[in-house]
Structures are given as structure tokens and as C-alpha cells.
Amino acid sequence: MDTMLAARMYGKQDIRIEQVPIPEINDNEILIKVKSAAICGTDLRMYMNGYKDISENNPRILGHEFAGTITKVGKNINKYQEGMTVAVAPNMGCGVCEFCSSGKSHLCQDFFQAPGINIDGAFAEYVRIPEPAVRQGNVIVLDERVSTEEAALNEPLSCVYNAFQKVGVFPGDNVLIIGAGPIGIMHAKLAKMAGAANVMINDLSKERLDICKKIDNSFIGVHSDELEDIIMKVTKGKGLDVCITANPAPITQKIALGLMAMEGRVNFFGGLPKDKENVSLNTNLIHYKELVITGSTKASVAMFSKTLQFIAEGLIDVKSLVSNRYELKNIHEAIESSKNATGLKNVISFI
Hints:
This protein is α/β, with parallel strands linked by helices and 351 residues long. The protein has two domains: 3-141 and 318-349, Medium-chain alcohol dehydrogenases, catalytic domain (Quinone Oxidoreductase, Chain A, domain 1), CATH 3.90.180.10; 160-295, 3-Layer(aba) Sandwich (Rossmann fold). Helix content is 30%, strand content 26%. It is built from eleven helices and 16 strands. It has helices at residues 41-49, 98-101, 131-135, 148-167, 182-193, 206-215, 227-234, 250-258, 283-289, 301-312, 331-339; strands spanning 3-11, 14-21, 30-38, 60-61, 65-73, 85-88, 126-129, 139-141, 174-178, 198-203, 220-223, 240-245, 260-268, 292-295, 322-326, 345-349. Strands 3, 5, 6, 7, 8, 15 and 16 form a seven-stranded mixed beta sheet that branches. The chain has a six-stranded parallel beta sheet with strand order 11-10-9-12-13-14, with helices on both faces. β13, α9 and β14 form a beta-alpha-beta unit. α4 packs across α5 and α4 crosses α10. The protein is globular. The protein starts with a strand and ends with a strand.
């Protein structure tokens, strides 16, 4: 039996590099040779805290931000051929519920599968793509202008685009992103692309703010100690048109409302820990300012395709977010770097 190298999680903070069988596929599935796989905050949370059905007796390969080359195709599949370079939108639904039938399979309540979450993912040399992903169009052939590394980073970009559509950034808007990690910078890049007049990024870390300025010196880095003063100065006392909380801190959701202009739009992008998910908000600010408060989670296949187009057309640069590249055998080093917020995105490279 042919084998491959894989990083399998056996439990909390227990990932092992092992030789395992290359996945078998049926007539309705495809097999991808992974070229690039990025480490996500979800991977870190699963690694640090454990995950509900991962155990010594039921290990799992993590990794849901990835791209690679098709090496095997089930005989019932006509759309894909061996040798195609593809990215995979990870979220699969049942295909028939009201959400799936309207193109929102990422919101499916009846069935959910995603590589690296509840089935084996891409921190391995090969990954099996199940029938629902093939049938629902989750496998997308890459434009020749998009590298597999860029395509791996497209998954979080598509989730950011979901929020972008919810709040609607318009030319001339004043925008604040709270959180200067890779997700926050992606939010800032989309806001800039849409014509925002001022894109401010807030973080506790001066190092992260310095990185933001290096990526785009038009971004206005704001330390938390000076947040309100800078916003009112930049907006001439008006307040923010758009604010996105791209972090897991409850206090930022509370703070955001007081920084908004009349008819401002807020997106709670970052999920909160279970023990901190109840947040006290001043709803009078929502009422009297006519604020629009939104949430967003994951991304649809259509969103995933659209942001791949942004990358291909040069509208969004994601290459600048890659801080480090690691071989799979060094995944523990990559995880440690991500855990310590060293740089931005860490990528497992198989090229």
C-alpha cells in the first residue's frame, strides 16, 4: 500500500508526523496532491484546546486552507482531469436545503463537512475530496496567474469578503479594523480596494501595526490608548462609517458602537470564546444612531470564486501576508510561530 507523510492530531496539543496510507477515492471523488497549506486560527484553536471527536483512537489531519494538483479522478467525474491545479472551498452542505439551494451551503444546518475540521484535511501530501465538494462546485480550477500559495490564502480572504458584503464599504468611507493580524489586514485591503478614504487598523501590538504600515503605508495604525482621539481627528468628529472587529475580544464589540457615525455599519467578524460570548452592549447607541450591526461566518463557494478573481486580476495582494514557509516535517515549528503571532501567515509548502 502506498503511503504519504501526514501531520495527524491525536488530541490536545498532540500532533504527530506519520507515514499513513494515501487516501483511496471512489468513483465520485478526486485526490489532490497538496502544494500549499496555510495555518489558520481555527487550526490553532483545535490544537490548543482539542476538538470534540479527535482522540487517540480517532486522529485527524488538520488543514483547510489549501491548493494543489489533481492526481486521481473518479470515473463518474467529467469536469476535472488529472494535472489540473485547483483550490478547494472547504465548507460542504447537504446540497438540498434552503441555504444550499440558494448558494449558501456554508450555512447548511442539516449536514456539514470540511477538510481539516470533521474529515481529514491538507496537512498531508495528499487529500481526498469527497463527492459533496465535487458535486457542489467547491473544487475550483486556478487561473494561471494565481499560485497555489495565494490560493491557500484565498480561503480566509473569502470569509473576509463575506463580512465586506455585509457592511458595504463605499468610496469615501472612514473604516476601522480592530485587529492587525492577517485577517485584519485582509479586511483593510478590501476596504482600500473599495475606495475607503481612510483605513485605520487598531491593535495592542506596535509590532503588528508596524507590519501593517510596511504592507501598505496608507493604512493608519492606531494603538488602543489613542483610539477615540485619532478616529475623531481623522473623521473630523463624525465617527466611523464602518467598523469590523477582527479579533476574539468581547470588549472590542462593546467599544465599536461608541465610535460609529450616524448610520454606521458594524461587523462582528471574530468569534468569541464560549465563556465570554455574552457581551453587554449599549443598545441606545444602535437605536439613536441607526446603526446596522452584522455578523458573518465562513464563506460560500461563490465568495471563494470571487476572491480568487480579485487575486488573479491583481486587485488584492495576499503574497505580502506570508511570513514563513515550512516543510511538513517542521509543522510544530510552524504552529509555534503561529501561536506566538510571529509575523502573519505561516504556510506549509510541498513544492
